[in-house]
Amino acid sequence: MEEIYAKFVSQKISKTRWRPVPPGSLQTAETFATGSWDNEENYVSLWSIGDFGNVDSDGGFEGEHQLLCDIKHHGDVMDLQTLSVSQQWTTAHYHTGPGSPSRSSAPCTGVVCDNPEIVTVGEDGRINLFRADHKEAVRTIDNADSSTLHAVTFLRTPEILTVNSIGQLKIWDFRKQGNEPSQILSLTGDRVPLHCVDRHPNQQHVVATGGQDGMLSIWDVRQGTMPVSLLKAHEAEMWEVHFHPSNPDHLFTCSEDGSLWHWDASTDAPEKSSLFNQGGRSSTFLSHSISNQANVHQSLISSWLSTDPAKDRIEITSLLPSRTLSVNSLDVLGPCLVCGTDAEAIYVTRQLFS
Amino acid sequence: MEELDGEPTVTLIPGVNSKKKQMCFDWGPGEMLVCETSFNKKEKSETVPGCPFIYIIRKDIDVYSQILRKLFNESHGIFVGLQRIEEELTGKSRKAQLVRVSKNYRSVIRACMEEMHQAAIAAKDPASGRQFSSQVSILSAMELIWNLCEILFIEVAPAGPLLLHLLDWVRLHVCEVDSLLADVLGSENPSKHESFWNLPGNTQTLTELELKWQHWHEECERHLQDGTFASSPRLESLCKIMLGDEAALLEQKELLNNWYHFLVTRLLYSHPTVKPIDLHFYAQSSLDLFLGGESSPEPLDNILMAAFEFDIHQVIKECSIALSNWWFVAHLTDLLDHCKLLQSHNLYFGSNMREFLLLEYASGLFAHHSLWQLGVDYFDYCPELGRVSLELHIERIPLSTEQKALKVLRICEQRQMTEQVRSICKILAMKAVRNNRLGSALSWSIRAKDAAFATLVSDRFLRDYCERGCFSDLDLIDNLGPAMMLSDRLTFLGKYREFHRFYGEKRFFDAASLLLSLMTSQIAPRCFWVTLLTDALPLLEQKQVIFTTEQTYELMRCLEDLASGRPVRGEPGAQRLQEDIENTKLEMLRLALARNLARAIIKEGSLEGS
User: Fold this and answer.
1) Residues of B in contact with A124 (CB under 8 A)
2) What GO terms describe the biological role, i.e. biological process, of this protein (chain B) (predicted)?
């Protein structure tokens, strides 16, 4: 992990997202979007990272990111996704109750896209399904949850997975009618709120969540209702967790405690895993998956699901040079990482794996 | 009451007719509210239409500047870093570290200045261009003062290196003039002059330096006496300058921007080994000579003079008056305090100057909708009043989304401010209940460990059950986990739901004993007993005997407790009806219990009954 560039931008950053590059292209990420929060006027801004052509005297690249354009945003920016769309859906989330006879709007906390479908969740416990070309919501699940839904992700279309503030994961299937989730998984012990969720890019049953106590949990949604492993990570809320899209043995988390961690669970040889296991669970899991899939390769068995999250197997590095205020958001694409903090700074690095 | 240091400025408020009407005002943490009253100032009552607005008046507008925000954020990082390394700062490296911190602060100011300058150039209208430019000059003055303080107070340069630092200081701030002067000087005696001063480090002692300089000075004088430069008046005046002749120097006034440039030039040529304590003599005379009685010193001049006199308190006081924002004095004072330069200068309310300034600065940050997060760390490092101030401020931050509330709560929890945690969670839980988000309300009460509120939420659930006959939000109640123990009512809710589940799964014996324990353990609210007993009915009516005799006696006791406990009421019609229904229920229960008792006795008495 070589250089990381910081720039102070006069707004607290709540979300950062890379602009997706076309699949199969050899380009690396060039543009990212940020959303601000807690300002009287919030902005969604597009930035480009430094010119590739200019090499400064140290032989490095000119690092500073430049603002391309921005647009005003009503309210805090809670989540960002990239899609071509020309619609605006206001009052997608609202509260009704004895105390608020007319609808008062509720914050929308998460949005996820899978062209052309958009799913949003909010503090009102509602799930909305939109289509890019439809004016009204295609499907709404009212009162899907009695507490706040913090984040949503696609499991395999048409299934989505939500996490809420009483420590539960719920899987919803849009093919089914009715307002009940098809599966509920929850943490053992204290029902600590879960703030973020991400699905393994290749193995759609492996899901990682981050909680209010900074704990990272890895789940297998096919098996059981409890997490497979719990890893004590940060000292405060974990705001985002991301599997690296092309190297899924690498996981990134960021937290209110001002740190950003890179979890490296890559193992060189599959045999290594058997050396470190103590129980027989991993090997039975191995056989389980082998029996399910005819042509499974060793490498497909996710290192995240093995037992004994042994500290000698997962290497954890902190990526930010010094402790700062909360790191609210991060995104990874290829060798590039961007993150935004409450200290009004954006950090970018283009050499994640060097 | 102290006398005022200067005349207070008058601010006119548009729309308010202060001549005719009386105004009223109230102070806030960083602002003032002002409005017109309906009282007239003079006796005659002229009916003048009043101004309907309430005005918010802020003194500190810098907090709202986009570019200055970067200053606040970056310096916050430096400030916190300085406080954290305080314990590790020892011995020789301490001074070097503190100088480095000072340079960091200054580089942040310079970066801001640069950006502000760019904005001034790119400004679309002349008014904002002027505003940016004036900000640039304020920042430049700040950096000038800080730099001087760094040289005199932090670096504590001794005689010899002192002049070098002062030279750098002036050069940094008067660079374009310096290039002109260099041209003039460069044409004559360049090597003699520059190589003399390119001393690599402190390899020479002060006396060696003095001797060398003395020798050179005498040579210059000899040249002048001999009239070597008599042919060229320019060269002659140049020589006089190099001898430190004040009159000659003053002739070049246009090249010297200001008196401190004059001062340093003078020192360079007449007293290069000046000692720090002698500085203020030369400074005062330079100021007087330069101004020549034509103009009076400006605030910046006074501040610099105070610095030359090593009067730190005066420097800080003058800066506080001259600048509209506490940023500068707060950070500079904190740094000087780390250098152990401030005696405990007690103010009216007992805390020291450093803390006072930091508190003022942090309070200003809290008045800002977004920068309050920075203010938290400043309060942390104010040992006497910081915590109390933070407690007061943090409760008043408006919480528009849950995410913001979570951050505020985290700040409170990290500092063990349990009262604030409780009150914030209560506000959020109330909001959630009003919006019918019972799960959220429960999760807030769990966070605050607020048993009373958990009871309130459980009562709501139970009421909903009574009204609708079924539970809402089963996903929550079924998955309470250890949180169930938070309050009795909540435990009851969880267990009651479990009872329903048992019944649904036809685990009648489990259901029965659970039901009984709910009643006997006193966690069921009284008003619910009828419902519980009524729930027992289907179990009593089953073909097999479910309740044992013991259990049946218990149930009967509960029933009689309930029946006797209810007061006999007066007679409005609906009440009557309700009572009749209640009485019928009670009768049915008594009958069912009696029958069950009979069957149970028989079952237990007979041989197979076990």
Assistant:
1) 435, 437
2) mRNA export from nucleus; positive regulation of DNA-templated transcription; protein import into nucleus
Q: Which of A231, A232, A239 is nearest to A259 (CA)?
A: A239
Each as own residue / partner, the long-range contacts of residues B419-428 (CB below 8 Å, 24 or more positions apart, any chain) are B419/B391, B420/B391, B420/B394, B420/B395, B421/B447, B421/B448, B422/B448, B422/B450, B423/B395, B424/B395, B424/B399, B424/B448, B425/B450, B425/B453, B426/B450, B426/B453, B427/B399, B428/B399, B428/B402
Q: What is the pLDDT of residues A166-211, one digit of tens each?
A: 888 999 998 888 888 888 888 877 788 999 999 999 888 899 999 9
Sign of CA dihedral B138, B144, B147, B148: negative
Q: What whole-number distance in Å separates Cα of residue B240 and Cα of residue A170?
A: 88
Q: Return the residue of A nearest to B484 by Cα.
A: A190
Are the beta carbons of B70 and A10 separated by less than 8 Å? yes
Do A351 and A3 meet the contact criterion of CB atoms below 8 Å apart?
yes
Tell me the chain B residues in contact with residue A40 when contact means C-beta distances shorter than 8 Å.
369
Confidence tier at A258 by pLDDT (50, 70, 90): very high
Phi, psi at A68, each rounded to 5° = -90, -55
- Contact between B587 and B560 (Cβ < 8 Å): no
- For residue range B193-213, what is the model confidence (pLDDT) as tens digits? 444 444 444 455 677 777 877
Report the alpha-carbon distance of residue B89 to residue A69 in Å, rounded. 45
Alpha helices by DSSP H, listed for B187-277, are 190-197, 206-226, 233-242, 246-251, 259-270
Return the SS3 of B457: helix
B437 CB within 8 Å of a chain A CB:
yes
Residue B438 contacts A where some CB pair is shorter than 8 Å? yes
Token reading at B52: 């309907």
Task: Look at B439 and A123 and tell me if their CB atoms are within 8 Å.
Answer: no
Question: What pLDDT score does B345 carry?
Answer: 55
User: Quick one: average pLDDT of B313-334?
Assistant: 91
Which positions ≥6 away from B145 have C-beta within 8 Å?
B300, B303, B304, B307, B315, B319, B328
What does the CA dihedral A298, A303, A308, A313 come to, rounded to 10 degrees?
A: 110
The pLDDT mean for chain B works out to: 81
Q: Which residue of A has its CA nearest to B444?
A: A165
ipTM (interface pTM): 0.82
Quick: pLDDT tens for B240-274: 777 777 777 777 777 777 888 888 888 888 888 88
User: What pLDDT does residue B295 have?
Assistant: 81
Give mean pLDDT, residues B390-408: 90
Mutate one of B65, B372, B436 to test the A interface: name it (highest A CB count within 10 A): B436
Q: What span, in angstroms and rounded, lies between the C-alpha atoms of B165 and B187? A: 25
Q: In the 8-state DSSP scheme, what is residue B199?
A: -
**Closest-CA residue to A194 (of A145, A139, A140, A158):** A145
pLDDT band (50, 70, 90) for residue B333: very high
A 10 A CB-CB count for A208 gives 24
As a three-state string, the secondary structure of B430-452 is HHHHHCCCHHHHHHHHHHHCCHH
Are B551 and B496 within 8 A, CB to CB? no
**B311 vs B305: CA distance, rounded Å:** 9
Could you tell me the pTM of the whole model? 0.81
- Coil vs helix vs strand at B326: coil
What is the predicted pLDDT for the residue at A172?
93
How many Å apart are CA A105 and CA A92, to the nearest integer? 8
Instruction: Please give the average per-residue pLDDT across B492-497, as a whole number.
Output: 88
Contacts of A23 (CB under 8 A, 6+ apart): none
The answer on pLDDT for B176 being more than 50 is no
Strand partners, B23: B36
Q: Which amino acid is at B423?
A: S
Mean pLDDT of chain A: 77
Quick count: other Cβ atoms within 10 Å of Cβ B109? 23
Residues 6+ apart with CB under 8 A from A251: A208, A216, A241, A242, A243, A244, A262, A263, A265, A304
Residue B237 clears pLDDT 60, i.e. is over it: yes
